[in-house]
Amino acid sequence: MKLGNPELRSRLASEYVLGTLKGGARRRFEDHLKNDATLRTEVAGWERHLSPLAERLAPVTPSDRVWTRIEARLDRQSPNSPSAVKAVSLWESLTFWRSLGLRASTLAVALLTAMLVLKPVEQSPILTAVLAEDNNVARVFVEQQKSGMLMVKMVTPWKTMNGMSLELWVVPKEGAPRSLGLINDTGETRLALTGMDEKLSGGLVFALSKEPPGGAPTGQPTGSVMCKGAIAHMPSKVPRTPI
Amino acid sequence: MRVSLMFAGNACRLLRNRTDKMTAMPSQVPNTVNEQLAALLAQAGLGNRTAFADLYEATKSKLFAVSLRIVRERHIAEEVLQDSFVNIWNNATKYAVAQSAPMTWMTAIVRNRSLDIVRRPFVEVQDEDDFFAINMEDERPGPDEQLVAKRDQVKIERCMQGLDGEQQQTISLAFFQGLSHSEVASHLGKPLGTVKTHIRRGLLKLKGCLES
Fold first, then answer.
1. A70 and chain B: CB distance < 8 Å anywhere?
2. DSSP A55
3. What is the CATH number of domain B149-212?
4. How far apart are CA A60 and CA B160, in angstroms?
5. Taking CB atoms and an 8 Å limit, are A47 and B139 in contact across chains?
6. Which residues of A fall within a CB distance of 8 Å from B53?
7. Which residue of A lies nearest to B101 if distances are taken between CA atoms?
8. Which fold has domain A81-233?
9. How far is A118 from chain B (nearest CA, A)?
10. Residue ranges of domains in chain A
């Protein structure tokens, strides 16, 4: 099936979207779609035209089990699967991150800064990290008090973000950085993601990148690294039960 | 009503989040349902499961209705919805705002999955009269359902009105129920060629009207 004729292309696109294109023809058309951006635009045009018709339908609430099953399926996928495997520039070089290991002096300066700024906490944290710039200025303090939640505190805000967003990433021992979400450019941000603990597992370093408003469009860091810091896991406060 | 409340709830949460996050940019607070859904999709693309759950809550009933109409069995439509949302999660980073509105993009995913599944030979399509009795009692869009893409909907409804009766009927049967040309023909007791012509001319007229 050659799709050179514009009239034929438009007709097939309309029938594909309408749903009347069936069976083998539908599959062949989908094969064409993969390699033909103009055809995809044609299809998108018809989708835009026809999909508002769906507004005629009275909503029907699906059973709660649908969401439970969706979540179970996402949990079975690897934690960083939506972000695919496309990393760029410095981010690609995970050896860079793995070899990072903050120098003791940096850590000391940064921790001191953080301790001066933060209020004392009653609960001992699960993990902490101080994210500093290359010049050792501590910018951000990250702390996990309880499972599934991260507290991120902007210790030294940047003067202006010029409309850009700040995105926090955890860089694992293996694999691509995982997004933990956007953080406020001042004050505190509480991040609570489903699957947070899975994302954090095996994490060595937190890094903050500057991204377009709304976050990295590719699901992987695209902007410059603003600050970074090694993750310190605190000893468990749960008393060991005698054997 | 439920849908509008969900949208309102999400809007509040989203506005709160965005206000927290983007204090320097009040102009970026999303103010339409489409923008809210687009923001949730963007967050889902970053791996934010909470945003993805909100996206599901805000759209599940509409998308379920779309699938149910095509596959006609609740358990199959539920399977479609599952597959579609896993697909949406995995492809959220590929969603391009410029190309289509979020609801359009998600509707297309659900429709395509429904059409895929309904082609499977082992899916038994239940008797249409029963189906209509159960699921087609409310064809008219209520005021709450008009929240999403109201302008687009008004436009396509106006353009549909401009088609002749047979064109409207054939296009509606194909779109809502996922019928093929020959199924539409047998449903209406009309020759296949006639049905194809109605659909083709109807779509061209619709396109002309929508793009005018």
1. yes
2. G
3. 1.10.10.10
4. 24
5. no
6. 67, 194
7. A48
8. Immunoglobulin-like (2.60.40)
9. 20
10. 6-56, 81-233
